[in-house]
Design the sequence.
């Protein structure tokens, strides 16, 4: 309910900081302000059109939705008006008054010293309205909610400093007028031709007519004389871009439409436009961005494509049309086969939506497949760097498309020893050694940790490639992706390794020397006894060539790294014990064999050292440090 008096309110501290950035021309391209205001007006009209499906009285006699841009050169005013949904007093304060959204704080935290990068961020964070203060020293917003009485209008005004005012006002028409009082040095934007060129450049794809006044000379009735009249002119094409034939749409128009729906000021990486008629009739226009949005990892944030039914906007975030692991996709889906009053509940239960979803998933995977097959792989590497971890979720979530997704995966490996993930599973299979029938991998909490892991020693010696997996999702990925093209995936840190059949670097099929467990059975038993219940088993290692010990687990047990992740998330884990493998040819182990009096200290030291390397932490680092110091001192004393 509106109040009878004007109220002055203060912006929050974050809003003041944001407005100061805008006032000092954060945008490197000032003309973007018009694009942002027109985009907001278009959204307001879309929302009204959707509301009017169930409440047709909202449109009443003003059923033709449109956006107007007017210029008053004498008063230095630009007005962007729409006859859309409009706002109440409370909504105008919430939406453009306090700027109290959590995204604003994240936006400020994400700002850099680069104007171009900051420009890209503004649209993504939903604060594009405030770009008006780049060219205006005062902004007035007059709005009335559709369906409300004219007396329920509201006027919001701010000079972009520390305060804004809100007061009731009488507004005969529904919708919103945004009035920009231009700064003295922004005269260029009072030129109608300049504004038209901006609209053509950025907003030609808007499906609503964008109207400006123009003067033209016409003949007087029954006379050869002419007179000057003011008429309305639709400046843009005013047709939904996705409904037009692909051959009639330029690449630049596709890119500008992407900017409109994504609020990303950059260009998309690639896109696909499909118009399908038959048992299921729909049009989809789907884009892959070049850069990840700030909220990609925010599970609470709404993700999804825009849904239209027969060109009528239904919702912004139709997450039912794409799986969660494709939440990076932007675009539009327009179908003739759903009811106009479709709700989320209907979407979740509709077989038509299932078919649309399957079709969209196929389009996206095909689009990524084409990108991955390009001779110049830089575009796909750009995609993988930004969204690879998200796509990996598809292996766990989308069993039906697991093979297609697996072909798109990229990894680091010992082939190049670089952190950049460029190796596909097909690349790996092409390089497999003679006699090798498994795809070997190793998971860990960082690339540095897996690259230097002792589990790789025998594989490096034989020249057998190992995939190095260090993303958090990789533990779940490998539990779901157990084979590829008939080749089992095998962790080099689990179970017993059978490497005898694999040819090494020089073509040999066996190592020159193999440890005989029977020969060292006594020392193995003594270590097991010394460790007690800390280790499930102690055994001679075939993995190690340079390190004295390592931790392994049984084939189907949870890795120490995954166990650590689950515990950090508050999960209660079963009390399983690791296996300690020992390199019986290592000098430290040989010293241990001769030092039976200190067997307990040596065994626990080798166990703790291996556990530290495996997990990066120990339950009792103090005891480990004391034991290490004592062993070093005693070894020094023995030499004296």
Sequence:
């Amino acid at each position: 309910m509106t109040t009878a008096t004007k109220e002055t309110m203060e912006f929050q501290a974050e809003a003041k900081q944001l407005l100061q950035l805008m006032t000092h021309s954060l945008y490197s391209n000032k003309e973007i302000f018009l694009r942002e205001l027109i985009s907001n007006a278009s959204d307001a009209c879309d929302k009204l059109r959707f509301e009017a499906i169930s409440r047709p009285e909202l449109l009443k006699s003003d059923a033709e939705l449109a956006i107007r841009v007017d210029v008053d050169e004498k008063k230095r005013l630009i007005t962007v008006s729409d006859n859309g949904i409009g706002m109440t007093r409370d909504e105008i304060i919430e939406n453009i008054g306090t700027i109290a959204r959590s995204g604003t704080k994240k936006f400020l935290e994400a700002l850099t010293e680069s104007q171009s990068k900051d420009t890209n961020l503004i649209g993504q964070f939903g604060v594009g309205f405030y770009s008006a203060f780049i060219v205006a020293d005062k902004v007035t917003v007059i709005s009335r909610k559709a369906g409300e009485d004219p007396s329920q209008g509201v006027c919001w005004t701010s000079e972009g400093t520390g305060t804004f005012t809100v007061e009731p006002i009488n507004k005969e028409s529904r919708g919103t007028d945004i009035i920009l009082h231009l700064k003295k040095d922004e005269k260029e934007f009072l030129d109608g031709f300049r504004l038209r060129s901006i609209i053509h450049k950025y907003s030609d794809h808007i499906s609503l007519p964008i109207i400006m006044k123009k003067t033209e000379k016409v003949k007087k009735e029954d006379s050869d004389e002419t007179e000057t009249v003011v008429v309305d002119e639709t400046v843009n094409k005013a047709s939904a871009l996705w409904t037009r034939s692909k051959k009639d749409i330029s690449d630049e128009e596709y890119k500008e439409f992407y900017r409109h729906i994504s609020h990303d000021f950059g260009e998309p990486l690639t896109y696909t436009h499909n118009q399908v008629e038959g048992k299921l009739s729909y049009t989809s226009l789907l884009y892959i961005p070049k850069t990840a949005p700030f909220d990609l990892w925010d599970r609470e944030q709404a993700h999804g494509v825009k849904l239209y039914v027969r060109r009528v906007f239904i919702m912004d975030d139709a997450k039912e049309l794409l799986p969660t692991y494709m939440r990076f996709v932007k675009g539009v889906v327009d179908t003739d086969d759903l009811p106009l009053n479709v709700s989320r509940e209907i979407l979740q239960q509709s077989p038509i939506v299932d078919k649309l979803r399957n079709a969209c998933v196929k389009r996206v995977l095909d689009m990524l497949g084409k990108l991955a097959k390009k001779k110049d792989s830089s575009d796909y590497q750009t995609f993988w760097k930004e969204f690879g971890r998200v796509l990996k979720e598809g292996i766990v979530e989308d069993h039906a498309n697991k093979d297609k997704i697996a072909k798109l995966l990229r990894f680091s490996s010992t082939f190049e020893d670089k952190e950049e993930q460029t190796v596909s599973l097909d690349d790996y299979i092409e390089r497999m050694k003679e006699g090798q029938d498994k795809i070997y991998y190793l998971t860990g909490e960082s690339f540095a940790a897996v690259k230097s892991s002792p589990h790789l020693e025998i594989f490096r010696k034989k020249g057998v490639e190992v995939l190095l997996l260090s993303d958090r999702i990789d533990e779940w990925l490998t539990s779901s992706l157990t084979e590829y093209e008939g080749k089992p995936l095998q962790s080099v840190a689990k179970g017993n390794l059978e490497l005898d059949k694999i040819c090494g670097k020089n073509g040999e099929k066996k190592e020159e020397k193999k440890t005989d467990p029977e020969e060292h059975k006594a020392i193995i038993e003594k270590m097991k006894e010394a460790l007690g219940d800390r280790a499930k088993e102690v055994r001679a290692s075939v993995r190690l060539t340079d390190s004295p010990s390592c931790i392994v687990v049984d084939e189907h047990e949870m890795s120490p790294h995954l166990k650590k992740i689950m515990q950090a998330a508050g999960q209660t884990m079963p009390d399983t014990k690791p296996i300690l493998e020992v390199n019986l040819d290592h000098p430290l182990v040989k010293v241990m064999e001769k030092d039976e009096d200190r067997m307990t200290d040596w065994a626990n030291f080798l166990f703790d050292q291996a556990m530290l390397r495996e997990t990066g932490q120990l339950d009792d680092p103090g005891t480990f440090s004391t034991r290490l110091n004592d062993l070093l001192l005693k070894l020094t004393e023995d030499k004296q």
Observations:
- The chain has 21 helices and 22 strands.
- Residues 7-226 form a domain with the Heat Shock Protein 90 fold (CATH 3.30.565.10).
- The chain has four domains: 7-226, 241-387, 410-512, 521-640.
